[in-house]
């Protein structure tokens, strides 16, 4: 996918090179906020693209690794890779050179003797298998003369990464919530426990063979029924939530509210190979308010907020509404009968919410999980992190880039509609196919046809009208998302009016 950069609402286009060698893109830091990196892992930290009109090649790249905590032995090497053409650092990229002696506080030079023709390159830092551990932290700087070519070496703008920190802490199991999804007031088959971890896991297989040793219950209790079976254990896409559904062969399991769940062993890990920990007590109620579990794809496609807006979850909670708990400053969006936190005012306002519409709860509602997964902008929002890339948020909670300025403008979008959000929130959204100059409006677009007062949401090449402003706002939309278009240019079928609960 191609990305485009904007500055002050204008696309930046590289000018004509005045010398034989020109760094046409970058150098650019690929670590724009503090980032955790595991031992024995590679991290692309800086990228640049150079052009040459006399067959000049890349001779070397020099960087300075600075740290107050790490020593040279904590780092395995600094390498330079030539991009394989897809624009991203991956296994297909070609090694141009590597230096296994990484200096701290002074220049480390990587000689690039192969795969060094003009093109795009990545500077890659690899951490050592041993020694690299918390509180180790480094930054990497490429100086103005850090790129040397066979002739006509360019002078560039120096760039320094944000902190690259050792990741030595595994995912922490933060909550375990019992839910009455079986249907009656007794513990029974179909009831479930929602386990929430503080960071993404490896989504390890949890089944009847290992659950009682991986997720140990105190009081000699068990997740398995009298026949030694388990209903199911299913991770969400992000690997942050594990839903355990109970079965009841010959008798129900002995797991109970108040039991402590202790994560043990090395089955559940994070991407850095750190073992999960945590020992929360099970809250909630197997026999309280009946909770309707979200459909199987709620966390797969991210559209549970759209699909269940207005649904009554019990305990006074209704999907699509805003809540605070006691004196806590955190604001939550109810979605799929869970409370999702807003991590900043930017996303809050991007959804068109107003602070006076927040319901304050005396305490956390029983049986309604409070998740670490953040509330994200509604479908139809244009967002941007700390880099220059502009993304469209679909009604499935995914982000789509644009292949060109024309692809952006022909759909009626304007740079003034772009909302800034954190890189961490942006990173929780999966990336969908880019929007090209031949595409119609992506699903989730909010459009108005010329001077008509009717407002529509586009979905599956159909435009669905909003029957009222209240329905529009309840679904998390803001009129700042609206684009005015010539609907005659787009062959959209007109669908039924959107309800406040389902469409």
Structure description:
The protein is flat and about 80 Å long. It has four domains: 6-166, Sandwich (Immunoglobulin-like); 169-293, Immunoglobulin-like; 298-361, no CATH class; 382-494, no CATH class. The chain is 7% helix and 33% strand. Strand 23 and strand 24 (332-335) form a beta hairpin. By secondary structure, it is mainly beta. Strands 4, 6, 9, 11, 12 and 13 form a six-stranded mixed beta sheet that branches. It contains seven helices and 35 strands.
Name the features.
disordered N terminus; five-stranded antiparallel beta sheet; 4 domains; six-stranded mixed beta sheet; 33% strand; flat; 35 strands; mainly beta; Immunoglobulin-like
The number of strands is: 35
Instruction: Report the CATH topology name of the largest domain.
Output: Immunoglobulin-like
The main pleated sheet reads as: 6 strands, mixed
Helical/strand content category: mainly beta
Give unreliable regions as ranges: 1-18, 294-308
Rg (C-alpha, Å): 26 Å
Relative helix content: under 10%
Put simply, the count of helices is: 7
User: In percent, how much strand structure appears in the residues?
Assistant: 25-35%
Question: What is this structure's SSE topology?
Answer:
Elements: E1 6-7, E2 10-11, E3 21-29, E4 35-37, E5 42-52, E6 58-66, E7 75-82, E8 94-99, E9 107-111, E10 119-127, E11 137-149, E12 159-160, E13 164-166, E14 173-179, E15 192-197, H1 211-214, E16 215-217, E17 232-235, E18 241-245, E19 261-263, E20 282-284, H2 298-301, H3 304-307, E21 312-314, E22 317-318, E23 322-325, E24 332-335, E25 338-341, H4 345-350, E26 358-361, E27 382-384, E28 390-393, E29 399-400, H5 405-409, E30 418-420, H6 423-427, E31 446-449, E32 455-459, E33 462-465, H7 469-474, E34 483-485, E35 493-494
Parallel strand pairs: 4-13, 14-20, 23-26, 27-30, 31-34, 33-35
Antiparallel strand pairs: 1-2, 3-5, 5-10, 6-9, 6-11, 7-8, 7-10, 11-12, 11-13, 14-15, 15-18, 16-19, 17-18, 21-22, 23-24, 24-25, 27-28, 28-29, 31-32, 32-33
């Amino acid at each position: 996918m191609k990305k485009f950069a904007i500055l002050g609402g204008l696309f930046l286009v590289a000018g004509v090179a005045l010398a034989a060698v020109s760094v046409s893109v970058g150098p650019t830091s690929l670590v724009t906020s503090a980032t955790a990196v595991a031992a024995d892992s590679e991290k692309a930290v800086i990228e640049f693209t150079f052009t040459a009109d006399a067959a000049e090649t890349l001779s070397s790249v020099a960087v300075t690794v600075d740290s107050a905590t790490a020593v040279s032995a904590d780092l395995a090497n600094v390498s330079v890779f030539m991009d394989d053409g897809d624009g991203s650092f991956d296994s297909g990229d070609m090694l141009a050179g590597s230096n296994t002696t990484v200096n701290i506080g002074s220049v480390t030079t990587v000689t690039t003797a192969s795969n060094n023709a003009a093109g795009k390159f990545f500077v890659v830092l690899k951490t050592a298998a041993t020694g690299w551990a918390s509180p180790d932290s480094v930054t990497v700087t490429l100086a103005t003369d850090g790129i040397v070519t066979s002739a006509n070496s360019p002078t560039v703008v120096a760039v320094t990464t944000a902190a690259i920190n050792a990741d030595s802490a595994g995912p922490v199991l933060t909550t375990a919530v019992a839910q009455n999804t079986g249907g009656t007031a007794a513990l029974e088959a179909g009831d479930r426990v929602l386990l929430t971890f503080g960071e993404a896991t490896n989504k390890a297989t949890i089944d009847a063979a290992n659950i009682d040793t991986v997720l140990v219950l105190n009081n000699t209790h068990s997740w398995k029924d009298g026949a030694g079976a388990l209903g199911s254990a299913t991770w969400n896409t992000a690997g942050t939530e594990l839903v355990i559904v109970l079965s009841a062969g010959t008798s129900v399991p002995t797991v109970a509210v108040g039991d402590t769940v202790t994560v043990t062993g090395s089955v559940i890990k994070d991407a850095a190979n750190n073992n999960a920990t945590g020992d929360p007590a099970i809250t909630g109620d197997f026999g309280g308010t009946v909770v309707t579990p979200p459909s199987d794809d709620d966390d797969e496609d991210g559209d549970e907020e759209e699909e269940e807006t207005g649904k009554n979850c019990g305990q006074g909670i209704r999907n699509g509404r805003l809540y605070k708990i006691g004196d806590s400053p955190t604001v939550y969006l109810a979605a799929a009968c869970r409370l999702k936190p807003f991590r900043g005012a930017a996303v809050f306002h991007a959804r068109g919410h107003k602070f006076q519409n927040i319901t304050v709860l005396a305490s956390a509602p029983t049986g309604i999980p409070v998740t670490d997964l953040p509330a994200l902008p509604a479908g139809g929002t244009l967002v941007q992190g700390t880099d220059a890339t502009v993304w469209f948020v679909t009604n499935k909670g995914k982000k789509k880039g644009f292949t060109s300025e024309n692809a952006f403008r022909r759909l009626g979008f304007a740079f003034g509609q772009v909302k800034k959000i954190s890189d961490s929130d942006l990173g929780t959204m999966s990336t969908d196919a880019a929007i090209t100059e031949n595409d119609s409006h992506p699903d989730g677009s909010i459009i108005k046809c010329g001077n008509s007062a009717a407002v529509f949401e586009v979905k599956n090449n159909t435009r669905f009208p909003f029957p009222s402003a209240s329905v529009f706002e309840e679904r998390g939309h803001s009129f700042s998302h609206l684009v005015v278009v010539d609907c005659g240019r787009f062959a959209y079928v007109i669908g039924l009016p959107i309800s406040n609960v389902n469409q």
